[in-house]
Amino acid sequence: MPSRSIQGLAFMVLVTAGCGVAPVESPPPNRPNIPVVPSPPEVAGRLILTLDTREAFVGLKLRLHVAAMNTQGSPMHSWSAQVTSSNPQVAAFDHSELVQMQYPNAASKSEVYLFISMTGEGKAVLRVRLGDVTDSVALNVRPLPPALNVLAVDSFTVVEYREQCAWACPYLIYAPLLKLREPTGRTYADVIAVEFSVPTMSTGYCTTGGLHFSGGLAAHVNYIDPYPWANDMIFASLNGTPVPDGPAKARVIVRDATGNYGLIEATAPIQRMVPKPGFPMSLFGSVPWSCNNRSLGSS
Questions:
Q1: Domain harbouring 196, CATH code
Q2: In the Cβ-directed half-sphere of 162, how many Cα atoms lie within 13 Å?
Q3: What burial class does residue 101 get, using C-beta atoms within 10 Å of its C-beta: 0-12 exposed, 13-18 middle, 19+ buried?
Q4: How many domains does the chain have?
Q5: Less packed terminus of the chain by CB within 10 Å, N or C?
């Protein structure tokens, strides 16, 4: 009997081996890690500052674009650039925004826009630093210019209406409508900034790339999107409380064909509770504006 058990065990071992069970192999020896040599950080060699100092008026916000070149003269990231002002009571840093710039034969670079608020009349020097490189730009911030008859106000009003929601929302919307016209038909002017206000709320000055009014052109400066949250220059009372009685106001900074700047002002009553307002299209389309204050909010 014992010899038969040994034979059976040997048979089981042979059968198991014949079924293809691979023998256990020893793991290969650990290979040493190949060291990775980090690329040296780029070193700034030169800054390129772009700012339209002609538009340094009290109340406006200017956009300072910072581009950078490394010591080899190639574009590099400028997102970490910082700015200081010699006189924050005249010009003060507000916020920054990043933009991806594509250069020929180079990867895209993250460049920064530094937004500077013109807080008072006077002179200031903005100093921008990136690594060990600095550059500067001087500002002469002026008071708002006197009114010019460069563009005529064809019409101005602010429309109050109840927003139609999928639920019983209480929102009251205030939409400003300003139509300007070049009156001579022989020259042109550009709208540089627009401010709308109703009692208790203001957009602050809103700027864009400039709206060009050719000779005789009449057009609304802003387009009202049917979806209220897609607009830059409207007001919203989120709790449904109407704004107090009082006039709506518009202030427009314009530049004429000779390069002179001027201020246009207009006032109008608020049209209360317009049931189904119809908004005209602007010839300029849906222009993105950058406003000093948030126009959407609760009164």
A1: 2.60.40
A2: 11
A3: middle
A4: 2
A5: N
**How does DSSP assign 47-101, residue by residue?**
EEEE--GGG-BTT-EEEEEEEEEETTS-EE--TT-EEEES-TTTEEEEEEEEEEE
DSSP 4: H
Whole domain around residue 91: which residue ranges?
44-141
According to DSSP, the residues that pair with 262 across neighbouring strands are 254
Buried b (16+ CB within 10 A) or exposed e, 105-125: eeeebebbbbbbbbbbeeebe
Verify that 202 and 259 share a domain, yes or no.
yes
- The reply to whether 125 and 229 lie within a common domain is no
Each of the 299 residues of the chain gets a pLDDT tens digit; together they read 444 443 443 333 333 344 445 555 666 666 667 766 566 778 999 999 999 898 899 988 888 999 999 999 999 999 999 999 999 999 999 989 888 888 887 788 999 999 999 999 999 999 999 999 999 999 999 998 887 789 999 999 999 999 988 888 899 999 999 999 999 999 999 999 999 999 999 988 888 878 999 999 999 999 898 888 888 889 999 999 999 999 999 999 999 999 889 999 999 999 999 998 989 888 888 788 888 665 444 44
Domain match, 81 and 166 both: no
Q: What is the maximum alpha-carbon separation in the chain?
A: 125
